[in-house]
Structure formats: C-alpha cells, structure tokens
Amino acid sequence: MADTRIADIRITPIAFYDPPLLNNAGCHQPFALRSIIEVETEDGVIGLGESYGNSMTIDGVRAVAEACRGLDVTDLNGLWARINATLTDQVDGYNTGAGRLVLRVGGAIEVAMWDAFGKATGRRVVDLLGGQVRDAVPFSAYLFYKFGQHQHESGPDVWGEVLTPEQLVDEARRMVDLHGFKALKLKAGVLEPEAEIAGLRALRDAFPDAPLRIDPNGGWTVETTLKLLPQLDGLVEYLEDPTVGLEGNARVQAATDTPLATNMYVVHPSHLPPNMAQDAFRVILSDHHYWGGLQASRELARVCEIWGLGLSMHSNSHLGISLAAMAHLAAATPNLTYDCDSHSPWQTDEVIEGGKLPFRGGKVTLPEGPGLGVTLDRSELARLHQNYLDCGFTERDDATEMKKYQPDWEFARPKF
Ligand SMILES: O=C([O-])C(=O)C[C@H](O)[C@@H](O)C(=O)[O-]
Ligand SMILES: [Mg+2]
Questions:
Q1: Residue 403, domain member (yes or no)
Q2: Is the CB of 217 under 6 A from ligand 1?
Q3: 163 burial type by CB count under 10 A (0-12 exposed, 13-18 middle, 19+ buried)
Q4: β-strand partners of 184
Q5: 138 preceded by a cis bond (ω within 30 of 0)
Q6: Which of 41, 67, 207, 400 could pair with 45 as two cysteines, CB 3.0-4.6 Å apart?
Q7: ipTM score of complex
Q8: Which residue's CA is minimally distant from atom 13 of ligand 1?
Q9: What is the value of pTM for the model shown?
Q10: Is 135 left (phi over 0), alpha (psi -120 to 50) or beta?
Q11: What InterPro entries does UniProt report for this protein, alphabetically (predicted)?
C-alpha cells in the first residue's frame, strides 16, 4: 500500500505579469503575487496547491509545515488540529479585510493533500470530492476597466485602454471570441456609477442574451445603490457587493428582487447565520482559497442548498493549479447556480506543464489524469520565483499603484 504520510511541505512565492486592471481599491500592479504549495509524501508523490502570495499566507504555511510532517494526506481533521495549534486565527486584512489566516493556510495545504492522494491512488480529485456532476465547468467573462499600459511600458498591451462603453464592448467581444463565455461580469466601483451603468447597457445592446453582473466591491453607498436599482433590475442576473457590510446590503436586498451576491461580506462560516437573519445576500461566491479548501467548499455548497442560497465562485488573479482545483470543485458541486469567475484570461504566464487550461465555449474541461490532473513546470516555477524576488514588492497594493497614474486618487469604500 502507498505510504501517503507527509514527508515535506514546500511553498514557493511567485510573481506573474498582470495588466493594469482597475477596481475600487486602485490598479493592479505589474505583477500579481501568488504561491505554489507542494506536499510530498513518504513515497515521493507530490501534490500541488496554489494560493495567495502575501507574506502572511507564505509565513503561515511555512509555520505549519513542520507540524504536518507524518500526517496522512487523507487526515484533514489532523490538518486542522495542527494548524489551529500553530496559528492564531488572525484576520490578515488581505484584499477584502475579512480573510482568516487559518482558513487560508489550511486551504492552501488541503488542496495539495487531495492532489497527492489522488496521484498516489490513481483517482481524480473530482471523484474524491463526491463524483463528477457536469462534463465541463462554465465560467463568465471577467470584464475590467483598465489603463492601456503600465507606467514603465512603452505601448499598450493587447487589450488596450478600457474606460468607455465602446472600449468595454470591444473588450467583451475579444473575451467572448477568444473563450466563448456566455455570462459577462463587470468589475465596477471605478468610474461614476452612471458611467458604469452606461457600460452595462452597451454590453446589453451588444450581447442581448448574455447574463450580466456588476461588482462595485462595496464602492456605492446604500443611497446610490437604491437610486440605481430601477436601472439594474431586469438588466443583471445578480448584483455583487454593491455596498458595504451585511446591514447596508440587506437594505438594498429588501428593495429589490434582483439577488445580491457576495465574496466580501460572507467569507467565513460565522458570517452565514447573520446573513440569513438579515437576508443580505442570496448568492454566495465561494472561494476554496479562503473558505478552507475543497472539503470546506463542498460543505458551504451544502449549506447554500439547505438554505436556498445561490452559489457561484469568486476569483483573484491566479494560474493553472488554482483553475484546475476550481474546476474539480465546481464539477463535483451539484448546486452551482451561476457561471464561475476566473481571472485566467488576463494572465499570460503559466506554471503548469502544457500551458493554460483552455476555455472552450466558456467552459473548462477537467484535465486528464489523477489528482488535479496538472503537473508543475519547474523551469517556469523558477522563472516566476525570480520575478517575485526581483519585482520589488511582497504585498499587493492597488492604491499605491493607482496613485502613480492619478496622484490625488484616494481609496474610499463606499466611494460614490
Ligand atoms: O470581488 C471580487 O470579485 C474580487 O475581489 C476579485 C478580484 O480581487 C478583483 O477585484 C481584482 O483583482 O481586482
Ligand atoms: Mg466580487
């Protein structure tokens, strides 16, 4: 029988090229930070995970790695016991200010444990998670306003500047032509709300049948959102995090039949009961990277099913190990009610062999082979790790990046 006890856990920080995408927090830096996790068994099988590249996550995984030595890769209860004994449940403030370090660190290692077990036993992760319920996983086109180029670049990237409705439609057209996406998500909270609604309307005219979504990342006040509702009702399939907090969003949800969705204010099991009590969000955008991995995300899906909540998937900038994990999880989740988000089309670098997993007709087919079905391209890992060492920063900071373009720009949430 295979010896699936953990012999070693390694984490390698990486940085990959990212275009100047805009959001309520500012502008994406020229590199997105990420980390690659390897869980090696006593038999030398290596399971892969991918997670955040901020220092708290990297330090957290390193801190628990030693404690997990000797644990069987199937022993998820043992993993959580060891992590809880090693880390305090700190709020790390990364991205949404609500992520809990324990769940991030556990999630990062847990995915690699599933992959290692699958590779050691010849089983796919989707089968270990309960079985495949869909042939391929549907994703949405993730549309961003953006600058044409980073400050140090001599010319625009292939997407060019996107700040007007016409440019937004061109971006969407290119995304759809390249990848076949059906649903279109607009990252908002960047321009004046009326300008963003004009962008949505232009998308509706250009893509009459596409399900639309808009995500201001809490960038609108309750009052602004209430005023915009008559324009949004019937236009979007859901309204994502329009304003700040459970209470504010509950006031909006009370005024509309359009479901509100979140990846910002229900990001931990403890947020679910108050969300139900206040009827703030009716769609949860799950994310195994901060919910504590694949098993926890399956449990979250079950909770959503029991309580009649819709379910989809959130994404940060990521590479192929994360996309494979997202696809296995979604393929094993019966009640996925909306197409998932993915930043993958914005990324030109890759860390898995064979290049990026393709979207066909907007869907990802699970890669063949045991575990997650992906293997690490070690020369790319080395190159992207060197990027991390050379890029000059170790934390994501969209606000500072934005100020390079607009020195008087200030972060505010809500802003409009
Ligand atoms: O709210 C969301 O969907 C996200 O947080 C996704 C990403 O973080 C996105 O906003 C970004 O990277 O600019
Ligand atoms: Mg969101």
A1: no
A2: yes
A3: middle
A4: 141, 212
A5: no
A6: 41
A7: 0.97
A8: 23
A9: 0.97
A10: alpha
A11: DgoD-like, Enolase-like_C_sf, Enolase-like_N, Enolase_C-like, Mandelate_racemase_C, Mandelate_racemase_N_dom
